[in-house]
Amino acid sequence: MTPVLAERQGEILVVTLNRPERRNAVTLEVSERVAQAMDEFDADPALRCAIITGAGGHFSSGMDLKAFVDGARPELDGRGFAGVTEAPPAKPLIAAVEGFALAGGFELALACDLIVASDTAVFGLPEPTRGLVAGSGGLIRLARRIPSNIAMEYGLTGAQMDAATAQRLGLLNRLVPAGQALGAALELARTVAANAPLSVATSKRIMVEQASWPADRLWDIQRPLVDAVVGSRDAQEGARAFAEKRQPVWEGR
Predict the structure, then answer these.
(1) Quick check: 104 and 132 in contact, CB under 8 A?
(2) Which of 127, 187, 209, 244 is catalytic?
(3) Cα Rg of the chain, angstroms
(4) From CA 12, how far away is CA 41, in angstroms rounded?
(5) Of 7, 26, 114, 208, which is the most buried if we count CB atoms within 10 A?
(6) Phi, psi at residue 207, to the nearest 5°?
């Protein structure tokens, strides 16, 4: 069985972790295949948005502990866990979560730009209960996404977070009934993909990078990024389409 599936649905790439018998636990091979899919996603101008999901009713239970005991770790140099956590794609990435998103699985979801989850979803960083530490971005990103004291509790206790709590804390973009996470993620992805690709990629870049920009240089750093989009052919097309009351035809330049 292929451990990672990649399927194009128009302008959307759906990447599925496909080890349902192991609750989609991530191995080195899984990380390599996801990284390859992300490279192809970023390189293909016809693809505008990607979704990561899991087969068999679960997103991912994290690192394959059996492989870990045998001496194999799933991180890739420069790319991190699942080939994503240290180097997400430049284009938008959505997590579609059913069932468990635990340990590295939660870290993978947090590395995505948007999270759509069903009411079966369960999140958590149980690494301390296994003598490990959530070193693939879970501790860093969770502390930036929810109140720091609440993140601290989950990071120290290894407790699980149900979908309703994740929604209340602001982690989720959509909360849907069981079995509908991928469908809702596809709907959200199509909304993103309908927009100008340069505008979307630049907007993501600014929102991701601005936290590290010095306060006295915010506008100087942002200005050339914005100017490149404003001076693009797509900016002209968007204005013309609005004036002519039609849908724009984006070129990505």
Answers:
(1) no
(2) 127
(3) 19
(4) 9
(5) 26
(6) -65, -35
Q: Comparing C-alpha atoms, which of 89, 87, 4 is closest to residue 38?
A: 89
The pLDDT score that the predictor gives to residue 68 is: 83
The residue assigned the tokens 């720091």 is 148
Residue among 7, 107, 153, 209 flagged as catalytic: 107
Q: Could you tell me the sign of the dihedral formed by the alpha carbons of 3, 45, 136, 175, in that order?
A: negative
Interatomic CA distance for residues 206 and 199, integer angstroms:
11
What is the residue extent of each domain of the chain? 4-193, 197-243
Q: Does domain 4-193 have CATH number 3.20.20.370?
A: no
Q: How many Å apart are CA 63 and CA 82, to the nearest integer?
A: 9
Percentage of the chain with pLDDT > 90? Answer: 94
**What is the separation, in whole angstroms, between the first and last Cα of the chain?**
40
123-177 confidence digits (pLDDT tens): 999 999 999 999 999 999 999 999 999 999 999 999 999 999 999 999 999 999 9
In the residue annotation, 237 being an active-site residue is answered as: no
- Residue 32 annotated as catalytic: no
Using one digit for the tens of pLDDT, what is the confidence trace for 2-59?
999 999 999 999 999 999 999 999 999 999 999 999 999 999 999 999 999 999 999 9
For the stretch 199-252, pLDDT in tens is 999 999 999 999 999 999 999 999 999 999 999 999 999 999 999 999 999 998
Return the structure tokens found at 235: 């900016």
Return the structure tokens found at 99. 């069932």
Task: Give the Cα separation of 195 and 181 in Å (integer).
Answer: 22
